[in-house]
Amino acid sequence: AVAQEIKRAGGTNSLVGAITSNYVAAGGARRTQPTTAASPASATSRAPDYDELTDQATAAYDARDSARATQLLQRAIQLQPQSPRAYQLLGFAQLYLQNNFTEAEKNMRKAIDLGGSAAFRVFHDHANGSFRDTCAGTLFVTKANVTFKADDGQHTFEAADPDIREIKVNKLVGRLPGALGGSHLPGALGGSRLPGPLGGEGDIGAFHIKVKRASDSKNYNFAPLTKKKAESELIVSLVTGYGGVKS
Q1: Beta bridge partners of 126
Q2: What is the pLDDT of residues 170-207, one digit of tens each?
Q3: Contact 139, 235 (CB under 8 A)
Q4: pLDDT category, 247, cuts 50, 70, 90?
Q5: What is the spatial distance between Cα 100 and Cα 28, in angstroms, rounded to a whole number?
Q6: Which residue segments constitute the domains of the chain, with CATH numbers given?
Q7: In this predicted model, what pLDDT tens digit does every residue of 30-66 receive, in sequence order?
């Protein structure tokens, strides 16, 4: 099972649901391995395959080992350059461990181009833009839609590109004193390292997505867990670039 493999690779319980979510969001299916038994000698000498490398990289990310995560993902890309998952995880690691927006965007776009997704750790606002009542989760951007999945499973959001009428970094909403203080590095596509709900001041890099379906129109506000405006601008750029919506 996927969960058992993640744990064997050193992943925490918090990563199990996150990696499963990653597969669903990217529309991927895990490749099954032959069931033939291997001798002890061949088992120890066999090089890790693509799935094992990406699982090990996820565990390395959770341990905050940027160099190892990057090395493992680059090896996975060499094995299967047309598979999106390693590009997605590499972009994620470059964004959150290395603060390298240029390389992160390049690999996120490659993942999307190959039919996968780019993933971002964000807050979802429940209080009309004040961010005084939020949940944390992962926002996935694909060629065709944008999806949000809360860590607690209570809130989800999905909008196909034709229904997204606007996505913009907020000018006023999401810059209120006392919003989203205390910042921690996000876990790998999930996890429980969440900032405190209140405290702190200043710009939290909030952005909104305006969705219209038939006669119903609704505005959804989000903010990066990092509270970096540059991250919101990257999300806006990806959504507008692939969906052709207004920014």
Answers
A1: none
A2: 986 544 444 455 444 565 554 433 344 433 445 899 99
A3: yes
A4: low
A5: 26
A6: 2-29+37-113 (1.25.40.10), 118-243 (2.30.29.30)
A7: 544 444 454 555 556 789 999 999 999 999 999 999 9
> Which pLDDT score is estimated for 41?
52
231 token code pair: 């991250």
CB 207 within 8 A of CB 232: yes
Residue with tokens 């607690």: 152
Tokens (6 digits) for 6: 């993640």
Residues 6+ apart with CB under 8 A from 50: 31, 76, 79, 80, 83, 86
In angstroms and rounded to an integer, the radius of gyration of the C-alpha atoms of the chain is: 18
Which residue bears the tokens 């949000």? 148
Q: Which of 148, 101, 150, 122 is nearest to 224 (CA)?
A: 122
Within 10 A of 215 (CB to CB), how many other CB atoms are there?
Answer: 5
Contact 244, 237 (CB under 8 A): no
Question: Which residue in this structure is represented by tokens 């006392």?
Answer: 178
In whole angstroms, what is the distance from residue 204 CA to residue 84 CA?
30
